[in-house]
């Protein structure tokens, strides 16, 4: 296995200490402002991975274990969660802030993302709290609070250049995913539709809820339409509702994710930006 080490600010000494645990030298592959090192041909074991991952996390260094031959061009699709993955915020929490209800809604969001609360129930409860809110609040969130996660544009530029299609699949809302699809030139987007009547949110969503199973089915549908296998997809997410689609992917990436997601993903990016997948698949 190859071990890729990345950090925003770790010194070479910290990198070498982790490389020494792996029993190999760390080669500097930093590029374009991304600080990365590769340890080739590590004699992999689960116990070694546990040791190195813990040391890396303590030093704020991301550690990625991959077969040596795996490259970005081996994949055909990048599927991304939106809230707290492609963008820095949870849109529903920020919408709720317009009602003075952010703490209540955020608590439900957190429980759902940790896998402690079934997603359909969590979304239904959260959206119900928005009943009566003027729909202009959505535009305010978009204009005032929505920001891309670090490295998002660099990642997308490289992914598109490598010929991959892009899918945004979210348990959030079409108001935001449609905007992101257009603004970033993404190929596909799928999310929930908020019901709006007379300019007010009704506290309901229209149609089926985009939950964990629907996210997985969406990835499968897009792959089928592209005539590729899910194993040719990279899937990125942060919450428990992303796990089902991550499990069918050829490479799953946990981005600043909840512990339950980090534990099950192929790769966890805890400290660097979304463009951290580029040194991994170089």
Automatic annotation (TrEMBL):
Domain of life the protein comes from: Bacteria
This protein's UniProt keywords: Amino-acid biosynthesis, Hydrolase, Magnesium, Metal-binding, Serine biosynthesis
Molecular function (Gene Ontology), one example: magnesium ion binding
Pfam families associated with the record: Hydrolase (PF00702)
Functional pathway: Amino-acid biosynthesis; L-serine biosynthesis; L-serine from 3-phospho-D-glycerate: step 3/3
Catalytic activity from the UniProt record: O-phospho-D-serine + H2O = D-serine + phosphate; O-phospho-L-serine + H2O = L-serine + phosphate
Family: Belongs to the HAD-like hydrolase superfamily. SerB family.
Protein name: Phosphoserine phosphatase
């Amino acid at each position: 296995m190859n071990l890729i080490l990345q950090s925003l600010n770790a010194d070479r000494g910290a990198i070498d200490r982790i490389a020494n645990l792996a029993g190999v030298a760390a080669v500097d592959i930093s590029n374009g402002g991304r600080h990365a090192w590769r340890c080739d041909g590590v004699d992999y074991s689960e116990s070694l991975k546990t040791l190195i991952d813990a040391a890396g996390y303590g030093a704020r260094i991301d550690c990625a274990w991959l077969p040596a031959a795996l490259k970005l061009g081996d994949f055909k699709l990048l599927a991304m969660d939106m809230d707290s993955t492609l963008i820095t915020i949870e849109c529903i929490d920020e919408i709720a802030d317009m009602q003075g209800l952010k703490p209540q809604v955020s608590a439900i969001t957190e429980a759902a993302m940790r896998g402690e609360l079934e997603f359909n129930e969590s979304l239904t409860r959260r959206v119900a709290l928005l009943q009566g809110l003027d729909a202009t609040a959505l535009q305010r969130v978009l204009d005032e609070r929505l920001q891309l996660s670090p490295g998002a544009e660099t990642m997308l530029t490289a992914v598109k250049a490598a010929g991959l299609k892009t899918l945004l699949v979210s348990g959030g809302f079409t108001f935001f995913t449609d905007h992101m699809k257009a603004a970033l030139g993404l190929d596909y987007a799928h999310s929930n539709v908020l019901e709006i009547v007379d300019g007010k949110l009704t506290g309901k969503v229209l149609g089926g809820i985009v939950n964990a199973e629907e996210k997985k089915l969406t990835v499968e549908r897009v792959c089928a339409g592209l005539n590729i296998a899910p194993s040719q997809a990279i899937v990125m997410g942060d919450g428990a509702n992303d796990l089902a689609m991550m499990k069918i992917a050829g490479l799953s990436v946990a981005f600043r994710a909840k512990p339950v997601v980090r534990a099950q993903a192929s790769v966890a990016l805890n400290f660097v930006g979304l463009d951290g997948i580029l040194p991994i698949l170089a």
